[in-house]
Design brief:
Number of helices: 10
Distance between the termini: 123 Å
Largest sheet: 2 strands, antiparallel
Shape: elongated
Order of helices and strands: HHHHHHHHHHEE
Strand order of the largest sheet: 1-2
Oligomer: single chain
């Protein structure tokens, strides 16, 4: 018992009152007691001792993450004096880079995205209408016509997306011709022609598969633009400019795929062939029979030369040889 009580008696003066801490012999205890409340021995930031502290720490960490994200989007060019932000935050970095984009480039870039937004909205609307027509809810339009119009809308979006992706790649050829950032030769020329090869090859695919491939193409091209912006091949604002245009295009593609999958007749798989075959089979079951043999004891035969009608409806001949009785 004496061995266990000695450590407790040694700590008793420390726990009795704050005035005892003024003794130099006990000053070494304070850092040991406070060290456990530090969140990190590297950063030295305090831990979350209350809900308010936790809220503040989370807010600061999210802000730091967004700031790092803005740096990545801008390709790191925010450190240049011409685009140096007034505040090191997501809004500060984004605003500083955006203000350096020439107004005509910004206006024409957004204007070029308007037809794509319209095509995506049209695709979603026509998917909804085609789904209703295929289900028999919408009766004022033929299901085959609705599906054909939807297919044309999807093909328009795919074709316009291929044009945009090719154009964004061709910009690098213009930069190479102008010698922007120096003449890079084959690497920049290959970067410029690769999107065109990917874009126009998607035209041979089914519309939904083509949209997915184009989304991958837009994403990969922005990643390449981000890297070459950091390398000085493009204007300082180009990476961020391209990022938000890619977000616009990507949102339209995802919206079209989601709308076609949710409202469309077949969730975007085998859009025309699958649904039209089902509809044709259903209509074949329900349409009236105009030719062939109809089971029953009544038949329609061609009237003879002495008949008063072209068609004679009568009871079929009985197997026991009874006479035929006309019912007209």
């Amino acid at each position: 018992m004496s061995a266990l009580s000695r450590p407790l008696r040694a700590l008793a003066p420390v726990l009795r009152g704050s005035r005892r801490f003024q003794d130099p012999s006990h000053r070494l205890v304070l850092p040991l007691l406070q060290a456990r409340f530090a969140a990190s021995s590297v950063s030295g930031r305090p831990g979350s001792q209350t809900i308010e502290h936790a809220r503040q720490n989370v807010k600061e960490e999210v802000g730091n993450s967004l700031t790092d994200w803005a740096r990545s989007i801008a390709g790191g060019v925010f450190t240049v004096d011409s685009v140096k932000p007034t505040k090191d935050s997501f809004i500060g970095i984004t605003t500083a880079v955006a203000t350096t984009v020439p107004t005509p480039y910004l206006v024409m870039g957004l204007a070029g995205g308007l037809p794509y937004i319209a095509s995506a909205g049209t695709t979603v609307y026509l998917s909804y209408q085609a789904g209703l027509a295929a289900a028999g809810v919408l009766t004022n339009i033929d299901p085959g016509v609705a599906l054909t119009i939807l297919d044309q809308a999807l093909n328009f979006q795919v074709t316009y997306g291929a044009v945009m992706l090719s154009f964004l790649g061709a910009i690098h050829w213009g930069m190479e011709f102008a010698g922007l950032g120096g003449f890079k030769g084959y690497p920049r020329l290959l970067l410029g022609v690769s999107p065109a090869v990917v874009a126009w090859s998607t035209i041979t695919l089914q519309p939904t598969s083509a949209l997915l491939c184009q989304w991958l193409g837009f994403t990969a091209l922005w990643y390449a633009d981000n890297k070459v912006t950091a390398a000085g091949w493009t204007p300082k604002w180009y990476s961020q400019y391209r990022f938000y245009l890619s977000i616009l295009v990507g949102t339209c593609i995802i919206g079209s795929l989601a709308g076609t999958s949710y409202w469309g007749p077949v969730a975007g798989h085998g859009l025309l062939s699958h649904d039209l075959n089902l509809i044709r089979e259903e209509r074949q079951k329900r349409k009236p029979q105009r030719a062939g043999v109809v089971p029953g004891d009544i038949e329609a035969v061609e009237g003879g030369a002495t008949s008063d009608a072209y068609v004679v409806v009568r009871h079929k001949s009985k197997q026991n040889g009874d006479t035929i009785e006309n019912i007209d």
